[in-house]
Amino acid sequence: MNDPGPSRLALLRFLERVQLRDLERTRWWIALEERREAEKQRGVEARPSAPEWVLELGLNRDAPAAYVHVGDCWNAARRSRGISREQALRALAEGVRACPHCRPDSALGYQEG
Length: 113
Fold this sequence. Notes:
By secondary structure, this protein is an alpha+beta fold. It has 2 domains: about 5-45; about 55-110, no CATH class. The chain has helices at about 10-45, 85-95, 105-110; strands at about 55, 65-70, 80-85, 95-100. A 4-stranded mixed beta sheet has the order 3-1-2-4. It is rod-shaped and about 105 Å long.
């Protein structure tokens, strides 16, 4: 006996179910990615702004500060903390060196002596 197999219509209905399942999975992935992007954006918005001035600390807690930097200086070390304009001026006046790359002394209008 010759079995003609499933009809063309049955095959198309099967294809439709497969494609709907794929579409649902793709929509789920899109929703997941949208949630990730929204969370990432909230993190960016909640991030505190970069400090205007940075004090690079010494190698240990007893060592004097190494440099004063402009807040976005590429050369500021990890062991740095944000400081105010007044603190930056005071540090320079107390002998902390100005970073030779970002020149916070010039940006602050600091004149030695």
